[in-house]
Amino acid sequence: MWAKLRWGWDRIVAYLILAAIAAPFLTMYVGFFLRAFGKGMTLGILPKEFGFTNFRFLWEPIAWGLGQTTMWAALGNTLAFAATSGVVVTVICMLAGYALSRIEFRGKNLFLALQLFLHAVPGQVLLIAIFFLLFYIKLLHKIPGVALARASLEIPLGIWMAKGFFDGIPWDVERSAMIDGCTRLQIWYKIFLPLVRPGIAAVFIWGFLFAWHDFIYVYTLLPGTTKLMSTLIQSLLATEVIDYGYLAALSLIYMIPPLSLFVLLQRALLKVPVFGGKGV
Question: What's the pTM value of the predicted model, to 2 decimals?
Answer without folding.
Answer: 0.81
